[in-house]
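Ticket #4471: structure export looks truncated?
Reporter: QA, pipeline team
Priority: medium

Steps to reproduce: submit the single chain below to the structure queue and open the exported record.
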Amino acid sequence: MIIFLKQGISFQDEKKFRSFLVERKVEVISVERKKQKLLVVIGRFGELTKREINSSPYVESILEVDRPYKLASKSAKQGPTLIKINGLTIGNKEIIYMAGPCSVESKSQIRVTAKKIKESGCQILRGGAFKPRTAPYDFQGLGKIGLHFLREAAREFSLKVITEVMDVRDVELVEKYTDIFQVGTRNMQNYPLLRELGKARKTVLLKRGMWATYKELLLASEYILVGGNENVILCERGIRTHVPETRFTLDLNAVPYLKHETHLPVIVDPSHGTGRANLVRAMSRAAIAAGCDGLLIEAHLDPRKSLSDADQAISTEELTKLVKECKLIAKAVGRQ
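Actual output as written to the record:
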């Protein structure tokens, strides 16, 4: 159950109500939001206590939620979450395209890429400055200077920025340069990081772990939501299966399932989801048809020379074709 406190409730009144809950042995987690405070109830209690809570002068309303992910559940909110970033809205009819290289490699590379990304019809520039690579000998990213190059290129071509944050210690630094924090598949259950991002107020794109169930993804998002950050995007990026021909298996079942279960926007990453550049356009079209709110695409000026994930990066020319094709699919399913 979720308890919505009266807007503008004073500290003293909230303290009185919390004391009442303690007396009734009702355990709660407090959630601080911009417009309203709410309390997420842990465990069960009797019908009488529920009526007492509902009739309290400090309570605006209560909401029964029958899912373990209380705040992410579709029943926790009227209508879908719409995330607004400086004039751009994620989660409405318009499909959002996020594209760029796996890694920021140089100032000139990311600037020219940003220009091409803008021309192709994308709204958000992606690029990694801190890279979680499988081997410690692989290119790990440019770090802070990479963030600076990314922000500068995006600003020049009026694009928003998404980039990965890997460590709690880097949240403050990355926040200065990005519009959207990306949490990668390996960090989906990095709970200290998720808690820290819950304190931030910038949007977080949470990628599904390559091993994770839908429930585990939604419960991971709950760590961010319970911190008071309502701006969370879920991302399907492929899971490990017995299929050796692709890097991962892009699980598009996730899109309609998550749309049924949660009010949060859902993005699909067909680049990691397949690991093969020649499959990206087809799976992008399929993702739009399945009902996703946007795509996260790896695009490079010369994919063969990419310092990371070269096999799954498409050229910026291919990206232009992809966006055109996806807009046709979007129109067919009532999107833009």
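Status: closed, not a bug. The export was complete when the record was re-opened. Leaving a note from the reviewer for reference: The mean pLDDT is 93.
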